[in-house]
Design a protein that fits this description.
Helices cover 26% and strands 22% of the residues. The chain has 8 helices and 15 strands. Strands 2, 3, 4, 5, 6, 11, 13, 14 and 15 form a 9-stranded mixed beta sheet that branches. The longest helix is centred in the N-terminal third of the chain and has 16 residues. The structure holds 2-oxoglutaric acid and fe (ii) ion.
Length: 344
Amino acid sequence: MPLTLDSPRFSARDVDAAAIEDAIDRVGHVVIDDLWDVFFLLKLHDFAARHFQSEQTGSTHLPDVRGMAGWDENEFFDRIRKSSLPGVLRHMQRGDFVVSESERVIRRANAAVTTLFSGLHADGQLRCCSDEGIRSKREFTIWTPLVDCTGEDTPRLLLLHRDQHFYGVFSTDEQISDEGIPYFPLQLRPVLHSKGLQADGAAQQLDRMFERLYDARQCYAPHVPLGSAVLFEHNIVHGSYRHSGMTRPRYSMDFRAVGEYRLTDNNRHIQGRQFSPKGIFSFPSITSVVEPSPVPEPAAAVPAPRRPPLATRALYQLALLTLPVSVRSAMSRWLRRPQRVSAS
Ligand SMILES: O=C(O)CCC(=O)C(=O)O
Ligand SMILES: [Fe+2]
């Protein structure tokens, strides 16, 4: 069973929500091309570059972006509103849906640093909400790269076929352990600072384990150009697609959406925004309609990263509307060039 690039693919310009749902039901995930405004993603890339560069811990992710310098909460929800996602999610959730504020992550993956990838796992962080779903109990993750992910030099997303798992492929004597908790090297690490993956030869060992997984299970690592996203169901096993030959780092954003749900003591603490045909409301307490707001200037203390000039980015945005994906990908890679992060 090979690793394939051939994920079900749809265009956000001509969205067929029923066909997307059908593909999710069969395979577990879909790629949606041209979903996002690329300027928005470039802003998020700047945000990620600023905050990861100032961080010394070597962590794979910024777990909670709320209140961080440069994060614009209203713009985030407004960009979702302007995309094709509400149509798709309303169809699959059979009505209003809620995007959580807390289970929203900016990540990085960099194969030059063995520990900088997200190991295999299933999501389901919002089970306490989706279990109480009124019209649907489904929970979806939307994964969006903030760089072009169409080359073999850049980590992208790895997904297993629906109902497949890495259990059974490896034996327990291949597990390593951090703070007494055993796990497989390609699995999501149980603790942030994983010593088990810092041993000599760990990168090669990881490569070999992933190759054995690709032989044993149906795996997907679709190309995802800047502007596209992967939508998958919470129980799909996924993680970073990486191998030690990769040279470019990747930033990405992921967030989750559940159907409108009943409030209980277990989920009342989870804040989110409810998308309804009347607008976007804070949830659980429906108090205000969210209006788009101008993007605030970055905080003075945080140095702005180098970015391509506005005219170049405007040209790119124009080209995006007219050129085929292969040409857009090449432009996107070129645009990302000044943003490279050193491997150390
Ligand atoms: O970005 C990655 O490599 C992993 C992403 C992930 O775990 C998620 O989107 O839930
Ligand atoms: Fe995940």
